[in-house]
């Protein structure tokens, strides 16, 4: 590969930091701020055991408050950096930068963020990458604005040119485009040479139109971890069984079946009469560890065991995420990894 080649690194490659945004009273977390803050504190505590966390804050008051909460939890604050920028909400997986390596620097892809197809206002979030870049948050990087709606949670790469995604999500965002047209755009922008599409799989309570990061994730060039469902009486059973069959039919670049790791199914979590989207596939890979969303369910321990098998060289760290699924997302959704060298 040319030393100046542009490449989309896999999440398990070395990172310099994890980017998050602190929840506050002006975000959709306002009604349950205390509960969700506890998850963010646990998340930052887990991240900073392995690498720095960059925390976006809305203003000086939010920064002072977040710093006090994190410090009181005895977190190593030398591993925490605050950056001030306005934001609508805290789903950084979808509003943050998609980072490609370009020579000895980086190209930050800044796709349109439309609030998952216009479901929510996202005018501030759509400007977030540009504002962070212009503020000098990133090193040796250029920003490429792309007038095409795409969220980071909708795509998975193996770091070697294979992209995994769901057709439902991309079709919802671009109903007038064919699969061939969208495939061509994604392979060009993301420097991939093939896209593996899933036609099945969804979660009730999911605003994203079936983001791949709630359903199936690469665990290496030849391995996929996916959310299973073993309860025939559950409304998800048929779709997730069909997705499992699709995954079994996929082939690696050298024509072999992928090694598949099925995650257990948590009991239904109902809140104010609605089913919440509790997926163990929404884990986050950091340097030397996999941070796993835990829901206070008996399946948590089994999910840890599956991830330990899929990532034998990583420590598995459970982070309590039940408050997050009230807003229909989980651990991976509120984070964005920054490759090694992108920030100081």
How is this structure best summarized?
InterPro entries: Peptidyl-Arg-deiminase_porph. This protein has a single domain (6-339), classed as L-arginine/glycine Amidinotransferase, Chain A, CATH 3.75.10.
Description of the molecule:
This protein has 344 residues and is an alpha/beta fold. The protein has helices at residues 33-47, 60-72, 92-95, 115-118, 128-134, 167-173, 179-189, 237-249, 299-310; strands at residues 6-7, 15-21, 53-57, 80-84, 98-102, 105-112, 141-149, 155-157, 162-166, 194-198, 216-220, 223-227, 259-263, 270-271, 274-275, 284-286, 289-294, 315-320, 336-339. The protein has one domain (6-339): L-arginine/glycine Amidinotransferase, Chain A (5-stranded Propeller). It is built from 9 helices and 19 strands. The strands form 6 sheets. The protein has a 4-stranded mixed sheet, covered by helices on one side. A 4-stranded mixed sheet has the order 4-3-2-19. The longest helix is centred in the N-terminal third of the chain and has 15 residues, at 33-47.
């Amino acid at each position: 590969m040319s030393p100046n080649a542009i490449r989309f690194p896999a999440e398990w490659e070395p990172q310099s930091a994890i980017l998050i945004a602190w929840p506050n009273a002006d975000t959709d977390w306002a009604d349950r701020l205390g509960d969700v803050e506890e998850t963010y504190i646990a998340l930052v505590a887990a991240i900073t055991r392995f690498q720095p966390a960059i925390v976006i804050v809305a203003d000086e008051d939010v920064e002072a408050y977040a710093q006090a909460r994190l410090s009181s939890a005895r977190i190593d604050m030398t591993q925490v950096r605050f950056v001030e920028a306005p934001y609508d909400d805290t789903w950084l997986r979808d509003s943050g930068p998609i980072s490609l390596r370009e020579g000895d620097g980086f190209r930050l892809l800044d796709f349109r963020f439309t609030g998952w197809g216009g479901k929510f206002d996202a005018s501030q979030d759509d400007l977030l990458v540009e504002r962070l870049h212009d503020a000098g948050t990133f090193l040796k990087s250029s920003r490429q604005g792309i007038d095409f709606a795409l969220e980071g949670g909708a795509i998975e790469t193996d770091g070697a040119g294979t992209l995994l995604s769901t057709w439902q999500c991309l079709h919802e965002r671009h109903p007038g485009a064919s699969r061939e047209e969208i495939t061509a755009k994604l392979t060009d922008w993301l420097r991939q040479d093939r896209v593996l599409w899933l036609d099945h799989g969804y979660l009730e309570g999911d605003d994203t139109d079936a983001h791949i990061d709630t359903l199936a994730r690469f665990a290496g060039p030849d391995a996929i971890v996916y959310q299973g469902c073993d309860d025939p009486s559950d409304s998800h059973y048929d779709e997730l069984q069909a997705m499992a069959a699709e995954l079994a039919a996929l082939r690696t670049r050298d024509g072999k079946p992928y090694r598949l790791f099925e995650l257990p199914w948590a009991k239904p979590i109902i809140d104010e009469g609605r089913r919440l989207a509790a997926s163990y596939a929404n884990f986050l890979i950091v340097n030397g560890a996999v941070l796993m969303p835990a829901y206070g369910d008996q399946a948590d321990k089994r999910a840890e065991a599956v991830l330990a098998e899929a990532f034998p060289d990583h420590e598995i760290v459970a982070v309590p995420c039940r408050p997050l699924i009230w807003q229909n997302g989980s651990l991976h959704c509120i984070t964005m990894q920054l490759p090694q060298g992108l920030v100081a």
